[in-house]
Amino acid sequence: MENCVKSISLSIGGHVVAVVGKEAAYFAQSGAFARFVTNEAEAEWQVHYGMQVDAQPVDALLLSSFVYEEIGSRCLFYNSGDDYYFTMLPNSGGQPLAVMHYRRDSSIVESSSVGDPNALRFSLWFAISMLATPSQLTFVHSSTIVYKGHAVLFLGESGTGKSTHTRLWLNNIEGAHLLNDDSPLIQVNNSILVYGSPWSGKTPCYIPRNYPLAAIVRLSQAPHNAIRRLSIPQAFAALQPSLPPALVQDDYYADLIVDIISRTISNVPVYHLECLPDAHAARLSFETLFPLSDG
Hints:
By secondary structure, the chain is an alpha+beta fold.
Protein backbone atom coordinates (compact mmCIF):
# COMPACT_ATOMS: atom_id res chain seq x y z
CA MET A 1 0.00 0.00 0.00
CA GLU A 2 1.18 3.54 -0.63
CA ASN A 3 2.45 5.99 1.93
CA CYS A 4 -0.67 8.14 1.51
CA VAL A 5 -2.54 5.77 3.83
CA LYS A 6 -3.83 7.88 6.74
CA SER A 7 -5.88 5.34 8.65
CA ILE A 8 -6.22 1.61 8.94
CA SER A 9 -8.49 -0.65 10.98
CA LEU A 10 -7.18 -3.74 12.71
CA SER A 11 -9.11 -6.59 14.29
CA ILE A 12 -7.34 -7.26 17.59
CA GLY A 13 -8.78 -9.71 20.08
CA GLY A 14 -12.21 -9.55 18.46
CA HIS A 15 -12.32 -5.73 18.64
CA VAL A 16 -11.72 -3.18 15.88
CA VAL A 17 -8.95 -0.64 16.45
CA ALA A 18 -8.52 2.31 14.07
CA VAL A 19 -4.94 3.57 13.70
CA VAL A 20 -5.03 7.16 12.45
CA GLY A 21 -2.19 9.32 11.14
CA LYS A 22 0.75 8.88 8.78
CA GLU A 23 1.96 6.00 10.94
CA ALA A 24 -0.98 3.99 9.61
CA ALA A 25 1.04 3.47 6.40
CA TYR A 26 3.60 1.42 8.33
CA PHE A 27 0.95 -0.95 9.69
CA ALA A 28 -0.65 -1.23 6.25
CA GLN A 29 2.68 -2.34 4.78
CA SER A 30 3.82 -4.58 7.65
CA GLY A 31 3.44 -8.30 7.07
CA ALA A 32 2.82 -8.83 10.78
CA PHE A 33 -0.25 -6.59 10.71
CA ALA A 34 -1.56 -7.24 7.19
CA ARG A 35 -3.61 -10.30 8.19
CA PHE A 36 -5.34 -8.31 10.95
CA VAL A 37 -6.56 -5.54 8.66
CA THR A 38 -10.36 -5.33 8.56
CA ASN A 39 -12.79 -3.38 6.41
CA GLU A 40 -15.30 -2.97 9.23
CA ALA A 41 -16.30 0.68 9.29
CA GLU A 42 -17.05 1.05 12.99
CA ALA A 43 -13.98 1.05 15.22
CA GLU A 44 -14.50 0.49 18.93
CA TRP A 45 -11.14 2.08 19.76
CA GLN A 46 -8.88 4.60 18.07
CA VAL A 47 -5.17 5.38 18.34
CA HIS A 48 -4.33 8.77 16.84
CA TYR A 49 -0.68 9.45 15.93
CA GLY A 50 0.84 12.81 15.04
CA MET A 51 -0.97 14.59 17.87
CA GLN A 52 0.38 17.37 20.04
CA VAL A 53 0.55 15.53 23.37
CA ASP A 54 1.57 17.41 26.49
CA ALA A 55 3.92 15.75 28.93
CA GLN A 56 2.51 14.45 32.18
CA PRO A 57 1.74 17.04 34.90
CA VAL A 58 4.50 17.65 37.41
CA ASP A 59 2.41 16.06 40.15
CA ALA A 60 1.61 12.92 38.13
CA LEU A 61 2.39 9.63 39.85
CA LEU A 62 5.08 7.50 38.21
CA LEU A 63 3.54 4.03 38.15
CA SER A 64 6.23 2.12 36.29
CA SER A 65 9.67 2.62 34.77
CA PHE A 66 11.10 -0.16 32.62
CA VAL A 67 13.34 -0.80 29.64
CA TYR A 68 11.91 -2.02 26.35
CA GLU A 69 14.77 -4.38 25.61
CA GLU A 70 14.29 -4.58 21.84
CA ILE A 71 15.61 -1.05 21.38
CA GLY A 72 16.85 -0.23 24.86
CA SER A 73 14.22 2.46 25.31
CA ARG A 74 13.31 3.60 28.81
CA CYS A 75 9.52 3.59 29.23
CA LEU A 76 7.66 5.66 31.81
CA PHE A 77 4.00 5.17 32.74
CA TYR A 78 2.23 7.87 34.78
CA ASN A 79 -1.20 8.48 36.27
CA SER A 80 -2.86 11.78 37.14
CA GLY A 81 -6.48 11.33 38.19
CA ASP A 82 -8.34 9.88 35.19
CA ASP A 83 -5.41 10.55 32.84
CA TYR A 84 -2.57 8.22 31.88
CA TYR A 85 0.68 9.16 30.16
CA PHE A 86 3.20 6.86 28.51
CA THR A 87 6.61 8.02 27.30
CA MET A 88 9.35 6.14 25.46
CA LEU A 89 12.81 7.70 25.78
CA PRO A 90 15.82 6.81 23.59
CA ASN A 91 18.74 5.22 25.45
CA SER A 92 21.05 7.87 23.97
CA GLY A 93 18.99 10.75 25.34
CA GLY A 94 17.26 13.45 23.36
CA GLN A 95 13.63 13.82 22.32
CA PRO A 96 11.12 11.10 23.29
CA LEU A 97 10.42 8.38 20.75
CA ALA A 98 6.75 8.48 21.73
CA VAL A 99 4.47 10.38 24.10
CA MET A 100 0.95 9.02 24.63
CA HIS A 101 -2.10 10.14 26.56
CA TYR A 102 -5.23 8.19 27.52
CA ARG A 103 -8.19 9.32 29.61
CA ARG A 104 -9.99 6.63 31.56
CA ASP A 105 -13.25 5.42 29.96
CA SER A 106 -12.31 7.05 26.66
CA SER A 107 -12.10 5.11 23.40
CA ILE A 108 -9.14 7.13 22.08
CA VAL A 109 -5.42 7.16 22.77
CA GLU A 110 -3.51 10.18 21.48
CA SER A 111 0.16 9.86 20.57
CA SER A 112 2.91 12.04 19.20
CA SER A 113 4.45 11.01 15.89
CA VAL A 114 6.61 7.90 16.18
CA GLY A 115 9.36 7.41 13.62
CA ASP A 116 11.13 4.30 14.91
CA PRO A 117 9.29 1.14 13.72
CA ASN A 118 10.11 -0.84 16.88
CA ALA A 119 8.88 2.00 19.10
CA LEU A 120 5.79 2.33 16.91
CA ARG A 121 4.86 -1.34 17.26
CA PHE A 122 5.33 -1.25 21.02
CA SER A 123 3.45 2.03 21.41
CA LEU A 124 0.44 0.48 19.69
CA TRP A 125 0.72 -2.61 21.90
CA PHE A 126 0.70 -0.39 24.99
CA ALA A 127 -2.16 1.75 23.69
CA ILE A 128 -4.30 -1.33 23.06
CA SER A 129 -3.43 -2.65 26.51
CA MET A 130 -4.88 0.49 28.08
CA LEU A 131 -7.96 0.45 25.86
CA ALA A 132 -8.71 -3.28 26.07
CA THR A 133 -8.35 -4.13 29.74
CA PRO A 134 -11.70 -2.60 30.80
CA SER A 135 -13.33 -4.93 28.24
CA GLN A 136 -11.84 -8.00 29.97
CA LEU A 137 -9.29 -8.38 27.17
CA THR A 138 -5.56 -8.47 27.82
CA PHE A 139 -2.25 -9.54 26.34
CA VAL A 140 -0.51 -12.51 27.96
CA HIS A 141 3.24 -12.99 27.66
CA SER A 142 3.25 -16.61 26.53
CA SER A 143 3.88 -19.10 23.76
CA THR A 144 0.60 -20.61 22.61
CA ILE A 145 -0.06 -24.02 21.09
CA VAL A 146 -3.33 -25.16 19.53
CA TYR A 147 -4.34 -28.81 19.54
CA LYS A 148 -7.66 -30.09 18.21
CA GLY A 149 -9.22 -26.65 18.31
CA HIS A 150 -8.14 -25.74 21.85
CA ALA A 151 -5.35 -23.40 22.96
CA VAL A 152 -2.74 -23.88 25.69
CA LEU A 153 -0.75 -20.96 27.11
CA PHE A 154 2.82 -21.73 28.16
CA LEU A 155 4.07 -19.08 30.57
CA GLY A 156 7.47 -18.28 31.98
CA GLU A 157 10.03 -15.55 32.38
CA SER A 158 12.13 -14.65 29.35
CA GLY A 159 14.73 -17.35 28.81
CA THR A 160 12.76 -20.02 30.67
CA GLY A 161 12.16 -22.06 27.51
CA LYS A 162 8.59 -21.30 26.45
CA SER A 163 9.46 -21.28 22.75
CA THR A 164 11.65 -24.33 23.13
CA HIS A 165 8.84 -26.27 24.76
CA THR A 166 6.23 -25.32 22.18
CA ARG A 167 8.71 -26.19 19.43
CA LEU A 168 9.02 -29.63 21.03
CA TRP A 169 5.23 -29.92 20.82
CA LEU A 170 5.36 -29.07 17.12
CA ASN A 171 8.04 -31.72 16.56
CA ASN A 172 6.50 -34.46 18.67
CA ILE A 173 2.72 -33.95 18.90
CA GLU A 174 0.94 -34.64 15.64
CA GLY A 175 -1.73 -32.05 14.92
CA ALA A 176 -0.30 -29.32 17.16
CA HIS A 177 0.34 -25.88 15.70
CA LEU A 178 1.57 -22.53 16.99
CA LEU A 179 -0.87 -19.65 17.40
CA ASN A 180 1.54 -17.03 18.78
CA ASP A 181 4.99 -17.04 20.35
CA ASP A 182 4.99 -13.96 22.55
CA SER A 183 1.84 -11.88 23.03
CA PRO A 184 -1.55 -13.45 22.32
CA LEU A 185 -4.67 -12.04 23.97
CA ILE A 186 -7.26 -13.63 26.22
CA GLN A 187 -10.86 -12.45 26.20
CA VAL A 188 -12.87 -13.26 29.30
CA ASN A 189 -16.58 -13.55 28.61
CA ASN A 190 -18.94 -16.49 28.92
CA SER A 191 -15.90 -18.52 27.90
CA ILE A 192 -12.16 -17.83 27.79
CA LEU A 193 -10.89 -17.29 24.26
CA VAL A 194 -7.30 -16.93 23.08
CA TYR A 195 -6.58 -14.69 20.09
CA GLY A 196 -3.51 -14.55 17.89
CA SER A 197 -1.94 -11.11 17.47
CA PRO A 198 0.55 -9.21 15.29
CA TRP A 199 3.05 -9.29 18.17
CA SER A 200 4.86 -12.64 18.23
CA GLY A 201 8.40 -11.90 19.41
CA LYS A 202 11.15 -13.33 17.24
CA THR A 203 8.88 -15.97 15.71
CA PRO A 204 6.86 -14.75 12.71
CA CYS A 205 3.53 -16.30 13.64
CA TYR A 206 0.67 -13.89 12.92
CA ILE A 207 -2.62 -15.79 12.91
CA PRO A 208 -5.92 -13.87 13.15
CA ARG A 209 -7.88 -16.68 14.71
CA ASN A 210 -9.20 -17.52 18.17
CA TYR A 211 -9.66 -20.72 20.15
CA PRO A 212 -11.12 -21.65 23.53
CA LEU A 213 -8.50 -21.86 26.25
CA ALA A 214 -7.96 -25.44 27.46
CA ALA A 215 -5.17 -24.94 30.01
CA ILE A 216 -2.34 -22.74 31.25
CA VAL A 217 1.12 -24.11 32.05
CA ARG A 218 3.91 -22.19 33.79
CA LEU A 219 7.34 -23.59 33.00
CA SER A 220 10.50 -23.71 35.05
CA GLN A 221 13.81 -25.32 34.15
CA ALA A 222 14.75 -28.43 36.14
CA PRO A 223 16.98 -31.52 35.92
CA HIS A 224 13.82 -33.64 35.57
CA ASN A 225 10.32 -33.57 34.10
CA ALA A 226 7.36 -33.27 36.46
CA ILE A 227 3.95 -31.59 36.22
CA ARG A 228 1.29 -30.79 38.80
CA ARG A 229 -1.97 -28.89 38.85
CA LEU A 230 -1.93 -25.72 40.91
CA SER A 231 -4.40 -24.59 43.56
CA ILE A 232 -6.36 -21.39 42.95
CA PRO A 233 -3.91 -19.17 44.92
CA GLN A 234 -0.96 -20.84 43.19
CA ALA A 235 -2.66 -20.44 39.81
CA PHE A 236 -3.20 -16.73 40.45
CA ALA A 237 0.49 -16.28 41.28
CA ALA A 238 1.44 -18.23 38.16
CA LEU A 239 -0.64 -16.13 35.75
CA GLN A 240 -0.33 -12.62 37.17
CA PRO A 241 3.33 -11.95 36.16
CA SER A 242 2.49 -12.65 32.50
CA LEU A 243 -0.12 -9.89 32.20
CA PRO A 244 0.97 -6.31 31.37
CA PRO A 245 3.16 -5.49 34.39
CA ALA A 246 3.00 -1.69 34.09
CA LEU A 247 -0.80 -1.67 34.33
CA VAL A 248 -0.78 -3.72 37.52
CA GLN A 249 0.94 -0.82 39.28
CA ASP A 250 -2.24 1.27 38.95
CA ASP A 251 -5.17 0.64 41.32
CA TYR A 252 -7.82 0.98 38.59
CA TYR A 253 -6.09 -1.39 36.18
CA ALA A 254 -4.98 -3.74 38.95
CA ASP A 255 -8.62 -4.34 39.94
CA LEU A 256 -9.52 -5.11 36.32
CA ILE A 257 -6.59 -7.49 35.91
CA VAL A 258 -7.38 -9.28 39.18
CA ASP A 259 -10.90 -9.87 37.85
CA ILE A 260 -9.56 -11.20 34.54
CA ILE A 261 -7.21 -13.58 36.35
CA SER A 262 -9.85 -14.73 38.82
CA ARG A 263 -12.40 -15.51 36.11
CA THR A 264 -9.78 -17.28 34.02
CA ILE A 265 -8.42 -19.58 36.70
CA SER A 266 -11.94 -20.37 37.91
CA ASN A 267 -12.69 -21.85 34.49
CA VAL A 268 -9.36 -23.17 33.23
CA PRO A 269 -6.85 -25.52 34.93
CA VAL A 270 -3.37 -24.14 35.60
CA TYR A 271 -0.28 -26.34 35.90
CA HIS A 272 3.38 -26.03 36.83
CA LEU A 273 5.79 -27.95 34.62
CA GLU A 274 9.35 -28.52 35.81
CA CYS A 275 11.16 -29.67 32.72
CA LEU A 276 14.15 -30.44 30.62
CA PRO A 277 14.26 -29.22 27.00
CA ASP A 278 13.42 -32.66 25.63
CA ALA A 279 10.67 -34.57 23.85
CA HIS A 280 9.63 -36.36 27.05
CA ALA A 281 8.68 -33.01 28.62
CA ALA A 282 6.42 -32.24 25.65
CA ARG A 283 4.81 -35.67 25.80
CA LEU A 284 4.30 -35.34 29.57
CA SER A 285 2.53 -31.98 29.31
CA PHE A 286 0.50 -33.15 26.30
CA GLU A 287 -0.69 -36.36 27.98
CA THR A 288 -1.60 -34.42 31.13
CA LEU A 289 -3.62 -31.78 29.30
CA PHE A 290 -5.22 -34.11 26.74
CA PRO A 291 -5.36 -37.48 28.58
CA LEU A 292 -7.97 -39.07 26.33
CA SER A 293 -6.48 -37.94 23.06
CA ASP A 294 -5.39 -40.41 20.42
CA GLY A 295 -2.78 -37.91 19.19
